[in-house]
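Long-time lurker, first post. I've been practising inverse folding by hand and with some scripts of my own, and I keep getting stuck on stretches where the structure tokens seem ambiguous. Below is the full token string for one chain I'm working on. Before anyone asks, I'm not after the true native sequence, just a reasonable design that respects the backbone. If someone could post their per-position residues I'd love to compare against what I wrote down in my notebook.
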């Protein structure tokens, strides 16, 4: 014990912690009052074994195994996380048994360094050692005062890493922290000596650049930061790439206060993120106004949810096989009492960035599910309700339970609910997404991958997700009839989805050409303004009842009529071509350029195109190259002069042109060329039809083979079960104490168990099986067989053994034929009978 009063008082006056502990338990018997200066209650020392070890920071705890009598230098951590240098000394006092009976310890906190340590903790970032927010604000304030006197510019640059959360989530926070440290070193070494880089928290950094002569020089600083961080980082075997969004504001243009400058740099940084990331933007007054507007909308949106200002509109989804409306997509709409209609793109984004998306999503789900029931009550058939699920909703742990509760409350058949989820949402955590999707599918809910093609579009991942539908993004639908690359991509998406037994729906259908393209390439469903705009629930009822099926619209392109398209910007050329070909039975259409011709091709199936070469905007060769990719079966004839001979020849070699005619052309040559082109086109169609028929036949044959394989597998399983049952039955018969003998209609013994062979054993040891019953069975048993009345009889077997006998004729309860004879020796007791 430390019992000397003077020593005790001295310890209390200096910052030294002293304690005495039981060496067996590590619990302190005594601790000085100074322990509380570390921020830990004295009770921790008395109740937590070896508590002084936990005060030492983890990186220095290995030093505790190397303690010397004079003490060991180490670092200790206060309860608030601040670190301080200390000297730790331990000594033991042995008991009479030479076993330590007391453990004395002292921890001296260096008084000269305490103030510096406290200042360091208050002004430095613990992870990177960079200045923190407090120190940065102080330095910005000092820089403003200097810049005001020197008339130089200063810039505040707010830097935020793009998609840093993905690194933390996928590789862990330890890798994320190491990346932050490496980035901070790169930033600190890359700026000028007079500038300051600080970490404000998370992945947000700020750079203060001072002494800037011209405002335009700030551009060089911002670009240098982008370049500094563009090079890869190598962290624990991982090669990581960073992009950052930077917001820039300057003194005196954007403010004269440190807090204001920092806030406005943040505003510009967030706007840079919104505009695509990996860039820098200067602050502007418009951003302030936009921020104020956004904050106003956020507050108004909260009120809108409470006051029911929101409504759902429903856009029809049409099945292209039946031509009927089979579902709708629910779309939220907001009509503000003073601001009017608010764009969904604006208020949905605000809701997703706040907690408002959760109640908003719940309201959409409940309202949409109830609406299906209301429509059925109004006489409409059951329609599928498609509802978008936000990333915030999807990651809610109670999401599946919430959806199940809504289905239960509204009484909606889960098969009539389709949830739309984006690719990027599913790819955030693939394994967790798969588990959630399986839970939803187990309820019977349909699942659609929304905006397919705009994100990862990974076939391997798509095959793993238990989804039912792929939704082609409207950005692809918009370019279907004019961009061959987009058309090829959409065809591939449809084909790929069908191979995976998924349905395909295309959104954003706005022209007849887009509709025909999708229909001709076996897209399952479509939606868009060409078919129907989003409507309030009551207006949708009228729309549904007036809607004409799409069958006629889809069938229009399959006519046997020969369609010829003439394309040229010169009216006289077009008139001459029409006049010369008009009497050959073609339906002739005309266009003045490639763009107009592509629109016609999207609406009508055309067999042959005759086009001039030199046209404004798009030449004949350029036009035919697009036609080749979009409509490869259509025959293409070009009219051109000698000046274009090389261009046309190249196009012919590439397969873009079927035939080339010189200007001026001879009428008979033109007519022959068009006639041969139609023959070639029709032959191509016949071959394609034969190919489709063969493909369909192969598909049907494959289906038959699969069905046959399934039936064979089922029969094999049934046969296996039958064999097992037969083996079990035979095993039971073999071990019965009753003799059982089966005789067929020809009098042949076809079955005999072990007891039967024992009771009726012959002198030569030949078993009963396959013997003639009349030759092998005793006369008494044959008498029972001759009169099978189903009654038990007492008979005497060979050797004088008395037995009971029973004969049954088979066939009453089965398809078997013959008789069964059962014998059991008489024991003199009634319970000996089976």
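-- Answer (accepted) --
I ran through it position by position. Result:
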């Amino acid at each position: 014990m430390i019992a000397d009063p003077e020593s005790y008082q001295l310890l209390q006056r200096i910052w030294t912690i002293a304690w005495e502990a039981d060496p067996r338990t590590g619990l302190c018997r005594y601790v000085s009052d100074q322990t509380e200066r570390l921020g830990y209650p004295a009770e921790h020392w008395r109740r937590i074994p070896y508590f002084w070890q936990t005060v030492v920071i983890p990186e220095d705890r290995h030093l505790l195994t190397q303690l010397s009598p004079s003490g060991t230098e180490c670092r200790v951590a206060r309860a608030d996380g601040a670190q301080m240098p200390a000297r730790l000394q331990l000594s033991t006092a042995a008991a009479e048994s030479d076993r330590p009976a007391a453990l004395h310890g002292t921890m001296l906190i260096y008084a000269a360094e305490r103030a510096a340590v406290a200042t360091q903790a208050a002004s430095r970032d613990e992870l990177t050692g960079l200045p923190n927010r407090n120190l940065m604000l102080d330095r910005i304030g000092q820089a403003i005062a200097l810049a005001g006197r020197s008339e130089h510019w200063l810039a505040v640059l707010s830097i935020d890493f793009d998609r840093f959360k993905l690194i933390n989530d996928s590789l862990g926070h330890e890798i994320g922290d190491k990346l932050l440290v490496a980035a901070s070193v790169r930033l600190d070494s890359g700026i000028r000596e007079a500038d300051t880089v600080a970490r404000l928290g998370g992945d947000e950094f700020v750079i203060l650049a001072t002494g800037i002569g011209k405002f335009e020089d700030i551009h060089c600083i911002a670009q240098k930061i982008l370049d500094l961080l563009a090079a890869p980082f190598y962290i624990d075997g991982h090669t990581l790439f960073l992009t950052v969004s930077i917001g820039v504001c300057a003194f005196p243009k954007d403010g004269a206060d440190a807090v204001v400058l920092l806030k406005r740099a943040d505003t510009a940084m967030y706007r840079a993120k919104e505009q695509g990331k990996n860039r820098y933007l200067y602050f502007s007054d418009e951003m302030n106004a936009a921020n104020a507007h956004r904050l106003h909308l956020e507050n108004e949106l909260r009120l809108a949810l409470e006051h029911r200002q929101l409504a759902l509109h429903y856009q029809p989804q049409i099945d292209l096989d039946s031509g009927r409306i089979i579902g709708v997509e629910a779309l939220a709409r907001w009509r503000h009492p003073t601001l009017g209609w608010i764009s969904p793109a604006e208020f949905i984004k605000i809701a997703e960035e706040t907690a408002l998306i959760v109640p908003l999503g719940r309201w959409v789900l409940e309202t949409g599910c109830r609406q299906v029931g209301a429509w059925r009550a109004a006489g409409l058939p059951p329609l599928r309700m498609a509802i978008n699920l936000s990333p915030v909703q999807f990651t809610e742990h109670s999401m599946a339970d919430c959806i199940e509760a809504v289905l239960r409350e509204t009484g909606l058949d889960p098969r009539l609910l389709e949830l739309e989820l984006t690719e990027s949402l599913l790819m955030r955590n693939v394994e967790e997404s798969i588990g959630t999707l399986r839970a939803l599918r187990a309820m019977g809910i349909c699942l659609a991958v929304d905006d397919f093609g705009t994100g990862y579009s990974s076939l391997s991942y798509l095959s793993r997700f238990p989804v039912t539908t792929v939704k082609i993004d409207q950005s692809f639908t918009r370019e279907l009839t004019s961009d061959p690359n987009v058309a090829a991509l959409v065809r591939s998406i449809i084909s790929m989805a069908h191979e995976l037994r998924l349905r395909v729906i295309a959104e954003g259908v706005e022209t007849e050409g887009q509709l025909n393209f999708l229909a001709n390439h076996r897209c399952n469903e479509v939606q868009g303004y060409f078919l129907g705009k989003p409507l309030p629930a009551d207006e949708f009822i009228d729309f549904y009842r007036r809607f004409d099926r799409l069958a006629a619209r889809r069938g229009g392109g399959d006519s046997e009529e020969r369609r010829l398209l003439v394309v040229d910007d010169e009216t006289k050329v077009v008139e001459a071509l029409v006049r010369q070909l008009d009497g050959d039975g073609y339906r002739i259409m005309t266009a003045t350029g490639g763009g107009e011709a592509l629109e016609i091709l999207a609406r009508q199936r055309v067999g042959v195109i005759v086009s001039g070469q030199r046209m404004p905007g798009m030449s004949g060769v350029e036009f035919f190259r697009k036609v080749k990719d979009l409509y490869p079966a259509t025959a293409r004839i070009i009219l051109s002069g000698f000046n274009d001979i090389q261009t046309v020849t190249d196009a012919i070699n590439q397969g873009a042109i079927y035939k080339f005619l010189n200007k001026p052309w001879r009428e008979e040559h033109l007519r022959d060329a068009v006639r041969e082109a139609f023959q070639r086109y029709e032959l191509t169609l016949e071959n394609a039809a034969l190919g489709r028929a063969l493909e369909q036949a192969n598909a049907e044959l494959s289906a038959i083979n699969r069905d046959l394989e399934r039936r064979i597998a089922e029969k094999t399983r049934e046969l296996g079960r039958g064999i097992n049952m037969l083996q079990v039955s035979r095993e039971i018969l073999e071990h019965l104490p009753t003799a059982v003998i089966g005789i067929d209609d020809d009098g042949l013994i076809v079955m005999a168990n072990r007891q039967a062979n024992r009771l009726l054993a012959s002198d030569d040891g030949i078993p009963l099986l396959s013997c003639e019953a009349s030759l092998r069975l005793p006369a008494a048993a044959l008498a029972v067989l001759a009169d099978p009345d189903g009654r038990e009889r007492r008979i005497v077997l060979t050797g004088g053994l008395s037995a009971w006998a029973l004969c049954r004729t088979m066939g009453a309860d089965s398809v078997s034929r013959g008789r069964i004879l059962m014998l059991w020796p008489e024991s003199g007791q009634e319970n000996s009978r089976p």
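A couple of notes from the structure itself: The two ends are 92 Å apart (CA to CA). The CA atoms of residues 694 and 700 lie 10 Å apart. Happy to go over any region you disagree with.
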